[in-house]
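FORM 7B: Structural annotation worksheet

SECTION A. Query
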Amino acid sequence: MNQLHNFNLTILRPFNSMGSLTVTAIVLLLSITQLSHAQVTRQINSGNSLYGQKRYKEAAAAYAKAVEKNPTYTPGLFNLSNSLYQQRQFDSSRKVMEATARVAKDKGSKSAANYNIGNTYMSQQKWEDAINAYKNTLRSNPQDADAKYNLSYAEQMLKKQQQENKDKKDKKDKDKKDDKKDNKEEDKDKKDDKDKQDKDQQKDKDGKEDKDKEPQPKSQPSKLSQQQAEQLLNALQQEEKKLQDKLKKEKGVPVKLQKDW
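SECTION B. Predicted structure
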């Protein structure tokens, strides 16, 4: 467990294999002789007590009062950040921890601050930012085993995320390509249907024109009127009478007229 100076500052542990964060609180005890201001000491001690009881919201309030009195006091900033982290206020926790890293005067303090900055990013699955934070931790403290573990974990998760994003993009591109192909085939089917419909219409049109060109039956002659029929009948009777008279004269045989009308 990392420690700063002679103080038992709370350091957040790394993610376990399941990706959850395990945190162990170590109560910060400061002797009155190490602080120059009695009020700061009282607020820090109160915050430590509340933190140990997992009353993180109240602990944060106590640490905030100490930081108001001394904005550059590293232990106050560090524990304020941790109490905010425990409330899952990761952005606020990180801002305070970044301030801690700026005012820290030794490598141990900077390393611990960067480590916890990395943990806030891990909790939000911001893998690239977490990787950078853990690398900063190792620059100050190359032997930090927890930082090495978390760095490796963040790198694996980043690769997984990138692969998932790539798979999603590939699937999206494939779906888009398939949609274009389907639309193209649908347009082709529509064109084929239209061409077929046009051909059918043209065929029907040609058939109608051919039918119109077929020879039409001639009109039948109109029937004879009654007067015309009687005239024709009389003419035939006269002709037959003449024929009978002629035969009678030649043979002397009487001929009987036949009446067919």
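SECTION C. Observations
The radius of gyration is 57 Å. Residues 32-160 form a domain with the Serine Threonine Protein Phosphatase 5, Tetratricopeptide repeat fold (CATH 1.25.40.10).

SECTION D. Sign-off
Analyst initials: ____
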